[in-house]
Design a protein that fits this description.
alpha/beta; eight-stranded mixed β-sheet; three-stranded mixed β-sheet; 16 helices
């Protein structure tokens, strides 16, 4: 590995941008260092599945590369809906991969990445439609966790998290419809902030009123904050718009969070299993927060104990699968064959096809009631909720099996792995996973903090305080 590829491997994006700004390296040199790492390390990971290195070289060498906050920093986008004009997209689907689908134009978010000066070199692996919390699509094969190649990097942004955790790029685009930023952040020892619903536009094709949001996985809190500064805000015709921040998010990094009232939930709210390491991670974080001067109590929203939540979330999730199936068919101009849509997703799409309009409206109404019930806990005076990010340490690859004979087994097993993340997609609240614990076997274990709607500022303040009190940047996998 060249000196620059090695020297910049564990630098965050802020430091890499500073190298370019100082004239010490050029965008082209930074890109070549990242490409060298990808070509050398990724064969063991299978994280970067679609590559446009020659195009990226043209972008990096262009004098018109925008002088944004991340001018010249290499970046990767997830293979899920984030269209990059003129380049391939598969959404983790076999048919779209076979048909070599090319996006006609950028999404608004991808255009903002370009305006920030990022040099986008390709796409990271995603399960088909991001529908499971592991990254093992039929279309591209499994992505491996850099901390243990036999285990999942999580999902659905598993390719992004594996790439960042292995030092291929300093941060990467990620999406979250049920935990898909926070889950892989936990599995790979990264920072993963899920923004508030409506914080970042889904324009121009999709709308912000559903479960999903987009942002990134990173190694440092400041990179996450600075990227959100560069990308947040509504687009034309947005349906949900989060309240504007009072000041830049980067200004919250290092700011005094004050004395916060924090509730702790260290067990499954509906009685399911939680690994001892995950419970320990949450309790250790609670002890640390108390030592930092915060008021910490065992308390949590009663809505988390609502056993009907799974059905409410599942109804909308199934509808998303049905919509996506139609969009895929529109992208390739024909129906998908049985073997071109993974069994669990097809079963959910089929289930959704039998919804009446009234049943769907009732599901939306139930979700709205759940959202109000959940957010009421913060309105009653709590600042943060602390939970484990996951109920288990990173599970072995192949644990969540998507098979035609039992298509819904994958969904049931997924629910056991990720009980703590989906509620906050439904409530629309911001949440962050921080790498505050490693298991006895050396596996990363994340801790989740949830703030009131629109309060990413509180999350960045507390995350930065924890990053300083219990640093994690020195922890890197041996791959």
């Amino acid at each position: 590995m060249s000196s620059l590829a090695d020297d910049t491997r564990w630098m965050d994006a802020t430091d890499q941008a500073a190298l370019v700004a100082s004239g010490d390296v050029s965008p082209s040199e930074l890109l070549e260092a990242a490409i060298e790492r990808i070509e050398r390390i990724d064969p063991a990971l299978n994280a970067v599945t679609i590559r446009w290195f020659d195009h990226a070289r043209e972008v990096a060498a262009d004098p018109a590369l925008p002088p944004g906050p991340f001018h010249g920093v290499p970046f990767l986008i997830k293979d899920l809906w984030a269209a990059y004009g003129g380049q391939r997209i598969s959404n983790g689907n076999v048919a779209l991969r076979r048909e070599h689908v090319i996006s006609p134009a950028d999404t608004t978010l991808v255009a903002r990445y370009k305006a920030a000066g990022l040099v986008i070199a390709g796409r990271t692996n995603s399960p088909e439609l991001g529908s499971v919390p592991t990254t093992e699509p039929v279309a591209w094969g499994a992505t491996h966790n850099p901390w243990d190649l036999d285990r999942t990097p999580g999902g659905s942004s598993g390719g992004a998290a594996a790439a960042v955790a292995a030092g291929l790029v300093p941060f990467a685009h990620a999406t979250d419809g049920g935990g898909s930023i926070r889950i892989p952040a936990s599995c790979c020892g990264l920072v993963g902030l899920k923004p508030s619903q409506g914080r970042i536009t889904f324009g121009p094709q999709r709308d912000e009123s559903g479960l999903g949001v987009e942002h990134c996985v990173s190694r440092t809190v400041r990179d996450s904050a600075a990227l959100l500064d560069a990308t947040h805000g509504p687009g034309i015709g947005d349906t949900v718009i989060a309240p504007a921040p009072a000041r830049p998010y980067l200004a919250e990094v290092g700011a005094d969070p004050g004395r916060l009232r924090i509730g702790v939930l260290d067990h499954h709210p509906q009685g399911g299993h939680v690994d001892a390491e995950c419970t320990l991670a949450a309790n250790n974080a609670a002890t640390l927060l108390e030592s930092l001067g915060h008021d910490v109590e065992r308390a949590w929203p009663a809505a988390l104990e609502d056993a009907s939540f799974g059905a409410q979330f599942g109804a909308l999730w199934s509808a998303n699968m049905g919509i996506a199936l139609k969009r895929f068919e529109g992208m390739i101009g024909r129906p998908l064959a049985d073997d071109e849509f993974e069994p669990m997703n097809r079963a959910q799409a089929e289930f959704a096809s039998h919804f009446t309009s009234v049943e769907y409206a009732l599901a939306l109404a139930a979700v709205a009631q759940y959202r109000r019930a959940m957010q009421g806990w913060w309105a009653d005076g709590w600042d943060l909720l602390l939970t484990p990010t996951l109920a288990e340490v990173p599970i072995p690859l192949g644990t969540i099996r998507n098979v035609a004979e039992r298509p819904m087994d994958a969904l049931a097993r997924s629910g056991q792995f990720v009980p703590f993340t989906p509620p906050f997609n439904t409530s629309g609240q911001p949440a962050i996973s921080l790498p505050l614990h490693w298991s006895a076997a050396g596996l990363p274990v994340g801790v989740q903090l949830v703030a009131a709607y629109g309060r990413e500022d509180v999350l960045y303040r507390i995350a930065a305080q924890l990053e300083q009190a219990a640093p994690w940047a020195h922890r890197t996998p041996s791959i």
